[in-house]
Specification:
heterodimer, A: 76% helix, globular, B: alpha+beta, seven-stranded mixed sheet, six-stranded mixed sheet, 20 strands
């Protein structure tokens, strides 16, 4: 198992190199000029030439690439062209919010998706099944921006003034603030990876609140994430429900299930221990893929709910031709997918003894 | 062999992790800086007391051959600063009073930071009504009143929070839910909702702007003046305004909007919308009705271009009435703007919102041939514009602009379409909403709980506005910094840091007397050297204070250029 994990980790290197090469080449090949986006209507050719020289964009593309890879080897992802802030700093600000949103959304999608799928499979071809799958189909087809605005309208306006009212946008209430953990814990010598991890924890409102025992902050952060998590999680929920239903139906038709029933085992036990566990592999796979996708940023949800996550910053960077941000974020997203897949693969071994034996 | 390869790859992987962990200090993550927060202002003076004799600093060009207009800025004494120009600069006060790029910084603070936007963002020091309490990246900036503010009226609210949300519909929801006190850039679609809601109030912002249909006169058949004149007759501007613009918007009848004086010609009669006559003219010029022409635009909503695709389709349909085939080409802003500037588009939509209230910010920007977008400039127009720009006599300037307006209708370098109204919305409970053309005057507004929250459409890029051009950054900077002059609720400049600025007869020299006792939020006292340092940072290419953000300092070039001091040749 350990050898398997190490082998997979080593494979990350060529994947990363490939990602770097592809994103670097694509960003440079796409027409457009970052200078004109930064300076807007005021941009002139002369100003743009100066801009390119300042940020090294006047060098040849191979030279830029070699320099970029060399800097990455030293942990330097470069600075944003938009505001000259280090990419690592921007990642440490954006990624925690995306992780929080993805976690809550997948929690919502997994719990309700599996329940709906099981209920649907156990009541195959009944009214419950039809209703559940109708709900699942609606979930898949509903545009997230529409659902998001609808949820925001209902919970912020219709329920305004009631205990069920929820904020329609933003990450925290204006009165809340995130105190850096280095300040709380009096750490002054944090550098490199340690500083990055501390910044990540500081910028995760939920973790920050838990670690500093500021439960009002945790509550406020969760309150702000409920609507976005439901909006973005609904699609995943529908997919998980449909996958669970079909996987469970397939397993329920197997001989060993009939055998278990024939032995006189209670139906609930047969479903829970024999059927559901064997149906879990496709469900875990789909949950893993969905988690990876959500961790790489839920662009529309982040935009509608004004959440400062990876997706919205990535799109902003693409439209603004902010090359270092696009490249840096692409690497992070690739890593997220690689590690999510790794976790999913590892979970197969836990769920299916045959994988372990192989 | 496999084993060796395996061990080797493991070693490379581990080495890369170690290298990453031992990153260079330049990329270390300052965890303590997220969110950035500025300490509350201290009143420990950092500048020399009066016992030390004042040594006035000076930024000066050796001659006027460097390509710009601002020849020198000199601190004559502690509270007097003199600006010398190569050519008359009658719009000096309008320029330095409206654009946030001309904020005045403490010279010692500029030296400390090198004018670096990333450092200024962490702890902005200004003389404005507010200081930054914290900037939670991606979410909001909290401002509190500046205890050292020199203005007679202290802010009417105890906390001002600037938030952002790209989506107009989401901003409106926030306002309706009471989560914010005011919102920017209300869309035309949302106006009826706001007007029908007794809990909300609409606040129009009267800023001059226009949308135009650009024509590149190097592309046949648009090199033919008669063809351009016929096209001008084919656009039903009133219908476009009625269908797609917010109330208060008007069709454009001449090159500048009605508020630009001198510039706007009273009683001027615009080209009449007349399809039959236009078709007749086009036929007389052997216009090719079988050819398909491309009309380009970018889907980028602006106050002057509220519904890009719908407006482009409407113009396409209007031209089709005359039998002209037009293909619409929607492009991304990042490719669209360079392409139009490079002269690659025959027909295109662009627009403009004025930076300062003077005709030079209109005629000189578009009609003097500084951009290849319109093809060749017209010498008779350029000559009059240049004369008018250098004249300090409003009557003479108006006479020249009247002639330009006539020539504009004859040559049709562009077709101006509409002047849009910009609307903001506030909760009805917000008191004293008095929106000016260049800022919202947030310091005048009050709420019952003392907290005012305003939502705009994007996060400020930086708080070093000397090197920014975007409105979202300017809105934040306006709260923190002051300029020599300011605009509040009207288009008339009022002295701010300056008691007054007086020009000589030909407007080539402007002498400004500074207010006494003005203190920056770090405790430093304002003097003439601060003005010299602030202008040097933006205008002197070799200044060590010129780190900025993009490094372009574009407004210094646009308004006092086109080149700045010591700018290297291309």
């Amino acid at each position: 198992m350990i050898q398997f994990l190490i082998r997979r980790l080593i494979l990350v290197l060529p994947v990363l190199l490939g990602i770097l090469l592809v994103t670097f080449t694509i960003t440079r090949l796409v027409p457009g000029d970052p200078c004109y986006v930064m300076l807007g209507e005021h941009a002139t050719q002369a100003s743009c030439n100066e801009f390119k020289a300042r940020f090294g964009l006047d060098k040849s593309i191979p030279e830029q690439f070699v320099r970029y890879v060399f800097n990455i080897m030293h942990g330097d992802f470069g600075n944003s062209l938009k505001d000259r802030r280090p990419i690592t700093l921007i990642i440490s600000e954006r990624l925690p919010m995306t992780i929080e949103l993805a976690f809550l959304a997948m929690l919502f999608a997994s719990i309700f998706g599996v329940i709906l799928g099981v209920v649907s499979a156990l009541n195959r071809n009944s009214a419950t099944d039809t209703f559940t799958m109708l709900f699942a189909n609606m979930g898949v087809s509903m545009p997230v921006f529409w659902l998001g605005l609808l949820l925001a309208y209902f919970f912020a306006l219709v329920l305004k003034g009631t205990p069920f009212a929820l904020p329609p946008s933003g990450r925290l209430s204006a009165t809340m603030s995130l105190v850096p953990l280095t300040k709380v814990w009096g750490i002054t010598d944090a550098t490199g990876l340690k500083a990055f991890l501390l910044a990540m924890l500081s910028n995760s409102a939920i973790m920050n609140g838990l670690l500093t025992h500021n439960f009002a902050l945790v509550g406020d952060a969760v309150k702000h994430l409920i609507l976005p998590a439901v909006a973005v999680g609904t699609i995943s929920l529908a997919i998980v429900a449909r996958t669970t239903r079909s996987a469970l139906l397939e397993v329920l038709g197997q001989d060993y299930i009939r055998t278990a029933r024939a032995k006189g085992l209670p139906y609930a036990l047969v479903v829970r221990k024999h059927a559901l566990r064997n149906a879990l592999i496709p469900i875990v796979t789909i949950i893993g893929i969905q988690t990876g996708a959500l961790l790489s940023g839920a662009v529309l949800t982040e935009t509608i709910f004004s959440l400062p996550g990876v997706g919205s910053r990535m799109v902003e960077a693409i439209l603004g031709r902010d090359y270092p941000v696009v490249q840096g974020f692409s690497v992070v997203i690739a890593l997220i997918f690689v590690f999510t897949n790794l976790i999913v693969d590892a979970s197969y071994a836990y769920l299916d003894p045959r994988v372990r034996v192989k | 062999m496999k084993r060796i390869l395996f061990v080797g790859l493991t070693a490379v992987l581990l080495a890369s992790f170690v290298l990453s962990a031992c990153g260079t200090p330049a990329t270390e993550v300052p965890a303590t800086e997220a969110p950035t927060s500025a300490p509350v202002a201290t009143v420990a003076p950092t500048e020399a007391p009066t016992a030390v004799p004042f040594v006035g600093e000076k930024m000066q060009a050796p001659d006027c051959n460097f390509g710009g207009n601002l020849k020198a800025v000199e601190a004559v004494d502690q509270s007097t600063v003199k600006f010398t120009f190569c050519a008359p600069e009658p719009a000096f006060i309008a320029k330095v009073g409206s654009v946030e790029a001309f904020n005045i910084y403490d010279s010692d603070y500029l030296k400390e930071t090198g004018g670096d936007a990333t450092k200024i963002n962490e702890n902005p020091v200004g003389t404005g009504p507010y200081i930054v309490k914290e900037w939670v990246r991606g979410d909001h900036i909290t401002f509190v009143p500046n205890p050292t503010y020199f203005g007679t009226n202290k802010p009417a609210n105890s906390t001002f929070i600037l938030k952002w949300n790209k989506e107009a519909a989401a901003r409106l929801l926030d306002l309706q839910a009471g989560n914010v006190s005011g919102i920017a850039e209300v869309t035309a679609d949302d106006l009826p909702t706001i007007e029908a809601d007794p809990n909300l109030q609409l606040a129009p912002r009267k800023i001059n702007n226009f949308l135009y249909l650009g024509i590149n006169n190097t592309y046949p058949p648009f090199d033919n003046e008669k063809v351009r004149q016929a096209f001008a007759m084919l656009i039903d501007k009133q219908k476009i305004v009625d269908d797609f613009y917010a109330p208060g918007s008007v069709p454009a009848t001449q090159f500048v909007p009605p508020g630009v004086k001198p510039g706007y010609t009273d009683g001027y009669v615009d080209t009449t919308y007349d399809v039959a006559k236009a078709v007749e003219m086009l036929k007389a010029e052997n216009f090719d009705f079988n050819k398909e022409y491309t009309l380009s635009y970018a889907e980028r909503t602006r106050p002057y271009f509220p519904q890009p695709t719908k407006i482009a389709q409407a113009v396409q349909a209007q031209l089709a009435e005359a039998g002209i085939k037009v293909k619409l080409s929607m492009e991304e802003w990042a490719t669209y703007l360079p392409a139009t500037r490079n002269g690659d588009k025959e027909l295109f939509f662009l627009g403009w919102s004025e930076d300062y209230p003077d005709a030079t910010n209109w005629y000189d920007v578009f009609l003097t041939g500084s951009s290849k977008a319109f093809g060749n400039a017209f010498p008779d127009i350029v000559e009059r514009i240049q004369k008018a720009a250098q004249s300090g006599d409003p009557v003479e300037r108006q006479k020249l602009y009247d002639e330009v307006n006539k020539l504009y209708a004859q040559h049709v370098p562009t077709i101006v379409i509409a002047h849009g109204t910009v609307n903001q919305a506030y909760l009805a409970s917000v008191q004293n909403v008095k929106i000016g053309p260049y800022n919202e005057n947030f310091d005048l507004m009050s709420t019952s709980d003392g907290t005012l929250i305003f939502s705009q459409d994007g996060e400020p890029v930086s708080l070093q506005c000397a090197d920014e051009t975007d409105g979202n950054s300017f809105r934040a900077c306006n709260l923190l910094f002051s300029k020599l002059y300011k605009f509040t609720t009207t288009s008339i400049a009022e002295p701010d840091l300056a008691e007054q600025c007086v020009g000589n007869t030909d407007a080539t020299e402007w002498t400004c007397t500074l207010k006494k006792g003005v203190v920056f939020s770090n405790g430093a006292t304002l003097d003439a050297n601060d003005v010299v340092a602030s202008f040097s940072a933006g205008y002197d290419y070799n200044s060590p204070l010129r780190k900025g953000n993009s490094g372009a300092y574009q407004y210094f070039k646009d308004l006092f250029g086109p080149k700045v001091l010591n700018q290297p040749a291309e």
